[in-house]
Automatic annotation (TrEMBL):
Keywords: Aminotransferase, Pyridoxal phosphate, Transferase. It holds the Pfam family Aminotran_3. InterPro entries: Aminotrans_3, PyrdxlP-dep_Trfase, PyrdxlP-dep_Trfase_major, PyrdxlP-dep_Trfase_small. The keyword Transferase applies. Gene3D superfamilies: Aspartate Aminotransferase, domain 1, Type I PLP-dependent aspartate aminotransferase-like (Major domain). PANTHER family: GLUTAMATE-1-SEMIALDEHYDE 2,1-AMINOMUTASE, GLUTAMATE-1-SEMIALDEHYDE 2,1-AMINOMUTASE 1, CHLOROPLASTIC-RELATED. One of its GO terms (molecular function) is pyridoxal phosphate binding. This is Aminotransferase class III-fold pyridoxal phosphate-dependent enzyme.
Length: 450
């Protein structure tokens, strides 16, 4: 369907436009000789052009790069900036803490923390919350706690999940149907099958087979996979997950870091899920490092009653800057004033318009693609119908096609998430912004299939 020679020619053209438009970014990258891989964090090398775009400024869903080019940002820091860039209430709250009150990191509580705990309870239904600075850490600490409680060693994941750089989670279903290290897994401490089990998303029998070993402390899942396209649960899947975890004595941890897009209380609230633990990170701090995990009251009590577990010192749970005055002030402002229930209504309506428009373009050009929406986020995949598990979704990747689209859209002032074709709406993303994306996508697709 896609003429690969044409794709290569168009990509070459867009790469040279990209280089011409961005000489300052190119020079900054060339000069960054003291950085590992020339970037502040190695993922920033996930780029469609020869160098990453350097940021000059960003507000709401608007970004200006070092060369003065303006973008509509549908990447939003891969969800870290779902509240929009530097939302005023967060800037004010953080500014108050910095300039007026002082005390950015203390190892002493501030009263904002209880407000945030209560609000997270209202949204996600868990009773007892603790904070982290990243979703990765929140997942790590949740994993330690469920292992301690159950006395079981293994955590069960979905194939091609992503839950941060958590050792246990880097597992996929191999060609023989058995678990294996995720390709590229860096410096694994032990073979991942020692610590973990894996099942395909939407595979109830596979999940049951793994749980039947009786060694699974918890199933740690996203309610929909969001790091390999958006793979949605089939009707009844979550009921089966909950029933089987209970039957087999495993706890259920739901990671809402990305699926938060489903609504103010993530998919947990939107789909009435019943986890034992909820993990969330990234967006809840409005750009200031933040993460959290919430436990059911029963689980919290069981842990607090265990005198052999050191959760107040160096037993392996917690971190020095976690729950800092700065971080909780940012979470409070984000939840109280930015990512509110009303904001989600707007964001989801905008994402619906985004999805409908992309679907029209797919139909108009008879592309073998499809798009899924999860509340405020949507993502197209180069397969139709949309894959229903991680392995099939991984097989539908097309890096060359993705590079062309990302480059061509960037040259037309649109940023998509580098890791995928994901578009996320923040509270200030407008229908005009969505229309601008559609006009650009239509143009670059039309050239491709001409
Ligand atoms: N959980 C999920 C579902 C994620 O998508 C990610 C990051 N993409 C993480 C956890 C980890 O977040 P962080 O890298 O900020 O720790």
């Amino acid at each position: 369907m896609i003429d690969r020679a044409r794709l290569a020619t168009l990509t070459e053209r867009e790469a040279s436009v990209f280089a011409e438009r961005n000489p300052k970014s190119a020079a900054a990258y060339a000069e960054a000789g003291h950085l590992f891989g020339r970037v502040p964090m190695t993922w920033m090398n996930k780029k469609a052009g020869a160098f990453p775009l350097y940021v000059e400024s960003a507000r709401g869903n608007r970004v200006v790069d070092l060369d003065g080019n303006e973008y509509l940002d549908f990447a939003l820091g891969d969800t870290g900036a779902m509240a929009g860039h530097s939302p005023a209430p967060v800037v004010d709250a953080v500014g108050r803490r910095i300039y007026e009150q002082g005390g950015m990191t203390m190892m002493m509580p501030t009263t904002d923390a209880e407000w945030v705990g209560a609000e997270l309870s209202r949204r996600f239904g868990m009773d007892a919350w603790s904070f982290a600075l990243t979703a990765t850490d929140a997942n790590r600490w949740a994993i330690r706690l469920v292992r301690a409680i159950t006395g079981r060693s293994k955590i069960l994941f979905h194939s091609y999940c992503y839950h941060g750089s958590v050792d246990e989670s880097l597992i996929v279903v191999g060609p023989d149907g058995k678990g294996m290290d995720r390709p590229g897994n860096v410096g694994a401490p032990v073979k991942v099958t020692k610590t973990s089990r894996v099942a395909e998303f939407n595979d109830i029998e596979g999940l049951e087979r793994q749980l039947a070993h009786g060694d699974v402390a918890a199933v740690l899942i996203e309610p929909a996979l969001t790091n390999i396209g958006i793979v949605l649960p089939e009707p009844g899947y979550h009921d089966a997950v909950r029933r089987l975890t209970r039957e087999h004595g495993a706890l259920l941890i739901i990671d809402e870091t990305h699926t938060f897009s489903a609504g103010p209380g993530g998919a947990t609230q939107a789909w009435a899920l019943e986890p034992d633990v909820v993990v969330i990170g990234k967006a809840i701090g409005g750009g200031i490092p933040s993460g959290a995990y919430g436990l059911s009251a029963e689980l919290a009590e069981r842990i607090l009653n265990r005198t052999d577990l050191d959760i107040v010192d160096m037993g392996g749970v917690g971190g020095t800057l976690a729950g800092s005055p700065l971080s909780v002030a940012a979470m409070r402002a984000t939840l109280e004033e930015v990512l509110t229930d009303a904001a989600f209504e707007t964001m989801i309506a905008t994402a619906t318009a985004f999805t409908d428009g992309v679907r029209e373009i797919i139909a108009e050009f008879e592309l073998p693609w499809s798009i899924n929406q999860l509340g405020a986020r949507a993502e197209y995949r180069f397969a139709t119908p949309y894959p229903t598990n991680g392995t099939d979704a991984a097989a539908a990747a097309d890096p060359e096609l993705e590079d062309y689209l990302h480059l061509a859209l960037a040259n037309r002032g649109i940023l998509l998430t580098p890791f995928h074709n994901m578009a996320l709406m923040c509270p200030t993303t407008s229908l005009d912004d969505v229309a601008a994306h559609h006009a650009a996508l239509r143009e670059v697709v039309a050239e491709l299939v001409a």
